[in-house]
Amino acid sequence: MEKILSELYQQLQKLLTLHRQLLDLLRAERQALVDADAAKIEELALSKQGLLDQIALADESRRKLVSSVATAARLPAETVALSRVAIIAQGLQVRLGEQFRSVQQALSHILTKVEEQGAYNRALVEQSLERLVQMKRNIVGSEAPKSGTYSANGQQAAPGSGARLISREA
Fold first, then answer.
1. Considering its fold, how many domains does the chain have in total?
2. Do residues 164 and 139 make contact, with C-beta atoms less than 8 angstroms apart?
3. pTM (2 decimals)?
4. Which stretches of 73-93 are DSSP H helices?
5. Which domain holds residue 112?
6. pLDDT tens for residues 66-124?
7. Which terminus of the chain has a lower count of CB atoms within 10 Å, N or C?
């Protein structure tokens, strides 16, 4: 049992390291999005995909080890979460139980940060796409541009009175 717990702890440490790397990539991606650096965004997307694949493999290994812990403790595998593993580990060694709690808290914290950064990056991309769609509408003229300008006599200009950059006939 101690060997399985030790392997599981090492796997959790590996997952923690991979998620920290993912957070760093997401932060770099945010900067690339702000800078509109297409080459960097593409490079980071490839790196992120490779890292996500590594995380998936490590998580699968974690699941198998948790299942082994459940089997050794004679518990149904679906009822054993990391908090339960910490209790089981504490029954063997108090220090080991504390280590599991610590890594569980660290993983929970880093996952929250990854989710927040991912949501922020997604919002940046969606805002950029909306701006591009609006620019396309204004250029091609598929929709009247939203005008926030005033006419020569001081009245707010009508939305349809703006000029198009490209004629529909062209």
1. 1
2. yes
3. 0.74
4. 82-92
5. 2-143
6. 999 888 888 888 888 888 888 888 887 778 888 989 999 999 999 999 999 999 999 99
7. C
